Structures are given as structure tokens and as C-alpha cells.
Amino acid sequence: MVEFECTWCGKKYPTDTLEYKCDCGGLFRLNYDIPDFSKNLIDTNEWNIFRYRAFMPFEGSSYKSVTLGEGLSPIIAYDENLLMKMDYMMPTLSFKDRGAAALLTHCIDIGVKSIVQDSSGNAGNSVAAYAAKLGIECEIFVPENTSPKKISMIEAHGAKCHVINGNRDYCADECRKYVRESGKYYANHVYNPYFYEGTKTYIYEIYEELAYIPENIFLPLGNGTLFIGSILALEHLLSSNLIDKMPNIIAIQSEKCAPFAKAKSKNLKRIPEISPESTLAEGIAIGKPMRDKEILEYIYKYDIDIVEIPEEEILPARKKLALKGAYVEYTTAGNLAAYEKYKKENDIRGKSIITLCGAGLKSDH
Ligand SMILES: Cc1ncc(COP(=O)(O)O)c(C=O)c1O
Ligand SMILES: [Zn+2]
């Protein structure tokens, strides 16, 4: 049986609920029985994330009308120690397509016809593209500093784009106000647990492609959609006895907006109030991540280090990647800058992997 469970109070909800959080304010997680991960259960006829649907809570085949061929991104060596997963090779040029494909499959399954969501840009691009393909009416709220190219792309997919004067957190507040007033479905990548069913495939692919999990996994951490999905998948590999321990996970924040780093340095269970400063790493500039409690629990449970991207290293890192043939957006260049900083300050053993999760053409202002 598939059901939502509140991450705070444990109350259960059916997955076709139109509520986006529990009465107590807690966000949902998904409960369902999942078989042990096994290569034999991968549907190798599907060249998209739904090849892993044996480990997702979908019944039926609605995914066939949803998929745009997301996932299956190659892994390339940056040097002998560092691997890069080319997650900008996606239908809308960012890893968010993994989550959007799963989220929109759920929308189709429960008969939703009109959706609203807020985003720093990439998640909005993804949700707008999949909604367009499915004929679902879509509205996206973005903050005013969003790259114009991301806004044009949202509009090109036929979605209405509300550009909000204010930062990413204010934009999210405005969007939820609109959701409450309009009664439309909040197809949000942070709130809706189905999104993480898609981002889980990031790790499944690494495991299928390399046949091992690298010792050090660097993950960007804004709202944590890739972070949480990756932890769920790693826990799944662990409980399936395919890895014997969790890898060394390193979360990446911007030094201009690092609520999790602040919380961890003070051993807090919730993030403190911070004032985000402006950064080129717009994708992770999240001052009030809604799943902070859950994410901090993982950080303490798995002793996850947090590295802050030095702002002045973003452009040089972007250049280095471009000279290796990979043209990525600023937030993504920050992943390499963060890896290099961490490597300087720590004795890293074994292989590391970073994600190149957003394409460069999207962030030239
Ligand atoms: C390029 C890029 N990297 C990383 C992230 C961070 O993802 P999350 O906020 O889910 O942690 C985003 C989010 O928009 C992004 O666009
Ligand atoms: Zn609750």
C-alpha cells in the first residue's frame, strides 16, 4: 500500500490528497514496500528513469506518456580521482527532469489538471515542460533574479510565469498564498514526495553504470531535492546489502547562503534565521529550506560534512569545466569549486563524484 506519512507527527494521508502538507505543518514522506535493489529488476527496455520503476511507487503505465527520455546521463572522468555525472544532459538541461517526470506521473495518476509551483528556475523549466507535454495547465512563480533564459523557457512551454519582486524564499511564500487562494494543486518539488522518487535514480544510475558507489559523493544542497533522493537511494542500496556502509557524503552550500552549515556548527535541530546574500549560485540560494528538520537529521545520522562554495571560485571553476568540454551554469560550477576547497582542507581517499546538473546556456545573464 502506498501512502503519505507526515514527517513530523506520523499522521497518514492517501496519496491522492490535494493537501500539500499535514495539518500540523509537517511535510509528507512516502510509505510503500520496496523490493531489494537488484539489476534483474531494472527494465532495460526503458531508456529513461522509469527503467527503475520496480523501486518506485507507481502502478500502471502512465509514465509512458510522461517521459521525455530523462536520466541515463554519462559519467566522465575529470581527473584520476574525480568523476562528473553529466546531469545537464537532460530534456530541459537540468537534473530536475528526474523529479519532474516522477511528480507529473503522480499528477496524471490522480487526475490533476492544473498545477502551480515556485522555483529558482530549473525546477520550473522541468515542471513546465512535462506539464506542456501532458496538456496540464501550469503556473510557475520565480524570483526576480532568475536568469531571463529560464523565464523564456518556462513561457515557451506555455506556462504562465509570475516573476516575484523579492528573493527565492519570498517567492515561495507568495506562491503558497496563491495556492491557498486558488485551490490549485501545488506541484512543488520540495513538498511533493514523488519528486524524490525521481531524484533517487541519480544514485541508481551511478550504481548501474559503475557497478560500485564512489567513496565520496558531493551533493548540492539548497532545498535538498537531489540530496534527499540520493540518501533514500543509498539507504536502499545499503538495506539491499549492495554496499556495506554509507559513502562519505559532502553537502555543498553557498558561502553567501549556508543555513545548514550554520545549523551544524551550532548542533541545531532546525536551521537558524539567516539573511541570504546575493550569489551566482542562484540554484542553491535557499535561506528557508522547508525540509530542514529532515535534512539535519540525515546530516547528523550520517555525519555529513558541509562545504561552502567560495564565491570568487565560481567563475574560474566554470572556465576549468568549459576547457574540459563541459559548459555548465554557475550553480553547477560551484560544485567543482566546493570539491576543490574540500580537497584542500581534507584528506580525501578514493574516488569522488560531483554532479554537473545544470547547463551553461541557461545562466548567462
Ligand atoms: C543547477 C542546480 N544545482 C543545484 C540545485 C539545488 O537543488 P536543491 O534546491 O533541490 O537542493 C538546483 C536547484 O534549483 C539547481 O538548479
Ligand atoms: Zn503532521
TrEMBL record:
Origin: domain of life: Bacteria
GO BP: isoleucine biosynthetic process; L-serine catabolic process; L-threonine catabolic process
Keywords: Lyase, Pyridoxal phosphate
Pfam families noted in UniProt: PALP
Domain called Tryptophan synthase beta chain-like PALP: residue spans: 78-356
Record keyword Lyase present: yes
Parts of the chain that traverse the membrane: none
SUPFAM superfamilies named in the record: Tryptophan synthase beta subunit-like PLP-dependent enzymes
Molecular function via GO: L-serine ammonia-lyase activity; pyridoxal phosphate binding; threonine deaminase activity
InterPro entries referenced in this protein's UniProt entry, alphabetically: Ser/Thr_Dehydratase, Ser/Thr_deHydtase_PyrdxlP-BS, TrpB-like_PALP, TrpB-like_PALP_sf
Cofactor requirements of the protein: pyridoxal 5'-phosphate
PANTHER family reported in the protein's UniProt record: L-THREONINE DEHYDRATASE CATABOLIC TDCB (PTHR48078:SF6), THREONINE DEHYDRATASE, MITOCHONDRIAL-RELATED (PTHR48078)
Name of the protein: Pyridoxal-phosphate dependent enzyme
